## 1
Amino acid sequence: MKMSTSLSESSKLPKSVTISERLGKELQGNEMQNVSSGELLAAFELDTEAGVAARDALISGAHFDLWLDPVPAVRLLGICSVRQRNLQRRGKQTVGFADTIASLRNLGEQGLLVAYVNDRERGGHYFQLFLDPAPLKVIGCIGVSTAPGDGAAGDRT
């Protein structure tokens, strides 16, 4: 189940129930659009370089997607590890992988929500967020530069 919007779009929508009240329930039609960027912004307690940049992108109106179906942290750990190796091999600039992988290692089978923040229109990164659903809190954030020929390999964090 995916929710997609930007800060400017979601601020115009009526506020309904919170994300945590919706977990485990099937959302109908435009109910997914009622998940506000404000709810996502309130979940940011992460002060890493990637977390701060993703939060700033949301505040600036970047588009975001949020999936309300939890995924086990151990599965996300495997995906992130492979993704990091592939991006490094391609010479893409990344931020936040080391911190996020360390956080995911400690969570085992705990279900996490996944979100994306797309700041590419402003020349920024494409961020992937991992959130603890109860209480809603960002526990990890990775960012990938999509600039052509950025060439800076490795993770800055």
## 2
Amino acid sequence: MTTIVSKNLSAPRVLAVLVAVITVFGALLADFVVPAGAAQHLRNDAWPPHAKFHDAQYIVMSILLGVLALTLLLRRDGGTRARLWTACAILATPWLGLLAALLFPGTAIHDPEFADITIIGLHPQVLLAVLLLAMLAAAVALNARRRN
């Protein structure tokens, strides 16, 4: 029988699980629950309903991708190397999507009425995406190194 939670998570799995938890809750909290973020997103009266629809779609997709990755990461019935790689690829999807969205014409990381806040020269969402993608890359690299 398959056991769902492993007692000893490896460092690569810990990194990926952390990214998964942030992916599950991050967009929901930032865009809908936390007042400062929600005012810029789903609770922004200036946003048309269709824009709110796409933000809600992103929130739900992030939750689903994070839960799918957690399911892969927290099983311990063999094939952990392939599952870790697959989970990391799944988790990279919304964060790569966030960065790639900036390449489309007419997009912006924030609406003009909100201050352009930066941390080390990057918008907080961009910084978070870069950090989480680096954590996923580290998880894959550490896992490959452990196995070789």
## 3
Amino acid sequence: MPMRTGGTDHRTDHPADDLVNVILDFAPDPELDPETAERLARRLRAEIAELDVESVRTGPAAPAPDGAKGAEVVTLGVVVVAMSASGGVFTALIETVRDWLGRSSARHRVSLTIDGDTIELERASAAERRDLIDAYVRRHTGSERG
């Protein structure tokens, strides 16, 4: 198992074909002011960067949905997290996002996408979120969480 060295550096202890890219899309509560929303997004990215991931980088912005007003901000941050396909890092990423959402009473939405499979988390109860996340983790790790 590689030593934890932070989240934004590029390590070479995993072959490239063992890496998985997770696209994380954060849309803040629409009632928040932009500065607060940006601060929350930075905090989430920092928490993810503390995990044993290969890299955390800004991803492409999602296109605005039909009917959206001009330059209206729909999502605040798309982040691409590159990590090892093994070793429990994916479960740690999911737990970090779940904990981050649980600490907030606001109506944020976070979606995670791997190979076109997306899970979207928002305003679900803690039990509903847990069940959805457990099923998603099983699909991408092939194991039960304990």
## 4
Amino acid sequence: METRDKAAAVADVEQASSRILEIIDVKGKATEPGAMTMPCSDDYSQEEPYYAYHPWSLYKAPFAELEKGMNRLRAGLPKDGWKITKDGMDGTIGNSPQIVAESKGRRVMVDIRLNKEVKSEKAPAMLTVTVQSRCYRLPTTPATPEEQSPHLWRP
């Protein structure tokens, strides 16, 4: 498994998210929180291996415009170095259109879904996007004398 600094993995995921938003090219509102890291296992007390991911949504735009943005992704992602591995329906109750793609150069994947408005649930039409890196190990750094076990520290 490759080692990588968390800041570099987060930066790659955020850069990919920004590029995807540019390709969508729809005036709307995007959710704010940035990328974060999570353990690759279900044991959340483990710091590694880890992956970086950035879930966000684009909303406050008409469904027809979001649909055009989804179509721009179908054409634009391959031109931008992405390989689309799925382009179909997501199989949920709403059976939303879904694109899953892997970036050849950035070591990330993306899952994009186009959700219709559900008035009864007060859920607006939106594109949901999740950009995720592969799993990495943290680079090893030598411990400072203060961080070393007392048994190992020698003056």
